[in-house]
TrEMBL record, chain A:
Organism: Oceanomicrobium pacificus
Keywords (A to Z) from UniProt: Methyltransferase, S-adenosyl-L-methionine, Transferase, Ubiquinone biosynthesis
Protein name as catalogued: Ubiquinone biosynthesis O-methyltransferase
Function text: O-methyltransferase that catalyzes the 2 O-methylation steps in the ubiquinone biosynthetic pathway.
UniProt pathway: Cofactor biosynthesis; ubiquinone biosynthesis
EC id: 2.1.1.222, 2.1.1.64
Residues at which S-adenosyl-L-methionine binds: 44, 75, 96, 139
Presence of the UniProt keyword S-adenosyl-L-methionine in the record: yes
From TrEMBL, chain B:
Name listed for the protein in its UniProt record: 2-octaprenyl-6-methoxyphenyl hydroxylase
Pathway(s) the chain acts in: Cofactor biosynthesis; ubiquinone biosynthesis
Gene Ontology cellular-component terms listed: ubiquinone biosynthesis complex
Family membership: Belongs to the UbiH/COQ6 family.
Keywords, sorted A to Z: FAD, Flavoprotein, Monooxygenase, Oxidoreductase
The organism of origin for this protein: Oceanomicrobium pacificus
GO function terms (MF aspect): FAD binding; monooxygenase activity; oxidoreductase activity, acting on paired donors, with incorporation or reduction of molecular oxygen
Length: 253, 408
């Protein structure tokens, strides 16, 4: 479904729309297929909102604090991060390399009354087209790409000078292997088997090094820690042993 | 997707307006749908109804800017005395004594008359931007979808919002229309409520006598006056309510004993049948329940209002935090956080107050010395007593920010 089609609903096949609506409902079902993302989402958003507000001097308690900021969500999926950013007032571009996610995300944004520019494209293609953003959200993507440095170079180019990138991934050590592969994929079956390749996991030091080589200045690293008692995630300064997130900036020109 | 307000609140009692005010602090707009006509709320005659506000409730009212306007009218509770009694004998010598000097937070709570709290809430509803207060208006139908909640009013108007909150009491129509079933049972008991004037000062002490027929609570009001909540079997209560004022006082005197000196009735007499009613779920699609709509408990120690405001504080915090991180505040996973936070606690308190009442509302000659000894034992152990004081003051558990006195 192209942008023209979605604006001109007369040409849309109703069966197709129904299919996308069903897929959107699946993406947004907190107890469905994407349950692990929904569980992590409040914690990810807390970090993202705090970092953006801090970097751009916004009051996170004010309504629509991100008005005037242009944000790119790479690997947007069904829009789990794009929608909150749009609700906070940002102008959002959601990009996903998986074509089938785009109409699904569009349908849900429309249901939510949000204007979000969803595109089937890649970071590299957007960078080549000269697009630039105040903030790039790069969440749980870098461990899936073939050439992390090439990918982070593209992310650098996508940032305006002084722009902020939030990048999260999974650490590489025996614990992360146990938690992310055995635990999440085999025991809990939160993720399909083969979702992650442990060899592609990146340690925080390696990621900081890659960010520097891509011309970015690392600013912060924080752990996402799962608490099996409260069955929820929290942020931790100290425990980056499995899931973690970083903030880095592109130096002002 | 045009919304009349972010949140539609059904019920204009205390919980509904307080929720609207808490949400307004964070810029969320709400419409309060109130069945009462505006002038009923402003009836400022003394009617004898008072609330025991726990310390955390007072902190919440302070954080919402409401406390200042009523602080002078509120009587601090400096002592709580719990004892076992039997009509005609007064209190047993074995009693529990809670003194506020044992907790660092100051008075254990305050007693405030309904007629002072309500006008302050109504003034605030009018003064705070983002709140629409519809009086003399009821909901006749409601419908929710994954994206919106809609209500139809008796006047024919339709309102749309992102979330519908039922603060409409123990017979919540909001819960019923949503198909949320309730679990509950009656106690065959009725609470008689009135205020008395007395000869001797109360010294800021609240009393809870456990009588065989049910508990009697005496809460200090300003001056030489106290508010009474007096529980009897429903049959006895009906007989007592049918008596004239003099006959009513003849029933009451032996239950209180002589420690307050001569007593006289002030204002009106009220009767509330007791039952426990808990909604099987606190949330539904684009819907949440708070206060008695979520759970009406036995009003032992006046915990009903405090418990309701605890719901309100938790719900407001969940909704405001979600909004500030850009989440859709009415989404299922957001509402699930409120259910997790308040679902368990509610059951615990309902079961606890039920158990305490069952133990004490009993004239079994074997149980009586046993519980007298129990009270004396708790009294002898300072740590345990402090724990109970903190529980009564609402200081235990995972406290919402508003109950810590921290604005949202």
């Amino acid at each position: 479904m192209s942008a023209t089609q979605s604006q001109n609903s007369g040409t849309v096949d109703p069966a197709e729309v129904a299919k996308f609506e069903a897929m959107a409902a699946e993406w947004w079902d907190p107890n469905g297929k994407f349950k692990p993302l929904h569980m992590l989402n409040p914690c990810r958003l807390d970090y993202i909102v705090t970092q953006i507000a801090g970097e751009f001097g916004r009051d996170p308690k004010a309504p629509k604090p991100f008005e005037g900021l242009r944000i790119l969500d790479i690997g947007c999926g069904g829009g789990l991060l794009s929608e909150p950013m749009a609700r906070l007032g940002a102008e959002v571009v959601g990009a996903d390399a998986a074509e089938r996610n785009i109409p699904v995300a569009r349908v849900h944004a429309e249901q939510s009354g949000l204007a979000i520019d969803y595109r089937h494209t890649t970071a590299e293609a957007l960078a080549a087209a000269g697009e630039q953003f105040d903030v790039v959200l790069n969440m749980e993507v870098v461990e899936h790409v073939a050439d992390p440095l090439g990918y982070l170079n593209a992310c650098h180019d996508l940032l305006k000078p002084g722009g902020l990138m939030i990048c999260s991934t999974i650490n590489r050590n025996p614990k992360s292997f146990a938690m992310a592969i055995i635990g999440a994929e085999h025991v809990m079956r939160w993720l399909p088997k083969g979702t992650h390749d442990w060899r592609k996991f990146i340690t925080p030091d390696e990621l900081f090094d890659l960010l520097r080589r891509a011309g970015l200045t690392p600013e912060d690293r924080t752990g996402f820690v799962f608490n099996p008692i409260s069955w929820s995630w929290r942020l931790s300064d100290r425990d980056l042993s499995v899931n973690y997130v970083t903030a880095s900036t592109r130096p002002a020109a | 997707m045009d919304r009349d307000s972010d949140i539609l609140i059904v019920g204009g009692g205390l919980n509904g307006p307080v929720l609207a005010l808490a949400l307004a602090q964070a810029g969320l707009t709400s419409t309060v749908i109130d069945a009462q006509p505006a002038q009923v709320h402003r009836n400022a005659d003394f009617d004898g109804r008072g609330y025991a506000l726990s310390l955390t409730t007072v902190r919440m009212l302070t954080a919402l800017g409401l406390w200042e306007a009523v602080a002078d009218r509120a009587e601090p509770i400096l002592d709580i005395v719990v004892s076992d009694g039997r009509a005609g004998e007064g209190a047993s010598p074995w009693h529990l004594h809670f003194d506020h000097a044992e907790i660092e937070e100051g008075p254990m709570g305050h007693v405030l008359e309904d007629r002072y709290l309500r006008p302050v809430l109504l003034d605030a509803l009018r003064a705070v931007p983002g709140i629409t207060h519809l009086t003399d208006e009821t909901v006749t139908a409601q419908a929710t979808s994954p994206q919106t909640a809609e209500v139809t009013l008796a006047s024919g108007r339709t309102l749309r919002g992102g979330l519908l909150v039922g603060c409409d009491g123990r017979r919540s129509g909001t819960a019923e229309r949503a198909g949320i079933r309730r679990t509950g049972w009656g106690y065959a008991q009725t609470s008689l409520v009135c205020a008395i004037a007395h000869e001797r000062p109360h010294g800021g002490a609240a009393h809870q006598f456990f009588m065989p027929s049910g508990p009697l609570a005496i809460l200090p009001l300003p001056g030489n006056m106290s508010s009474l909540v007096w529980t009897e079997t429903t049959e006895r209560a009906a007989q007592i309510m049918a008596l004239d004022d003099a006959g009513y006082m003849d029933e009451l005197r032996p239950r209180i004993g002589a420690f307050l000196g001569e007593i006289a009735l002030c204002g009106k007499r009220f009767a509330y049948p007791l039952d426990l009613t808990i909604a099987n779920s606190l949330t539904g699609e684009r819907l949440a329940l708070a206060g008695d709509a979520a759970h009406g408990v036995h009003p032992l120690a006046g915990q009903g209002l405090n418990l309701g405001l605890r719901d309100v504080a938790a719900l407001a915090e969940v909704l405001v935090d979600a909004t500030r991180r850009g989440e859709d505040f009415g989404a299922r996973d957001v509402l699930a956080r409120y259910q997790r936070w308040r679902g368990v606690d509610v059951t615990a308190l309902a079961v606890a107050t039920d158990g305490i009442n069952a133990l004490f509302s009993n004239d079994n000659p074997l149980l009586r010395p046993l519980r007298d000894l129990g009270l004396a034992a708790v009294n002898a152990v300072p740590g345990l007593r402090r724990g109970l004081i903190r529980e009564a003051a609402g200081l235990t558990g995972d406290l919402p920010r508003l109950l810590q006195g921290v604005p949202l």
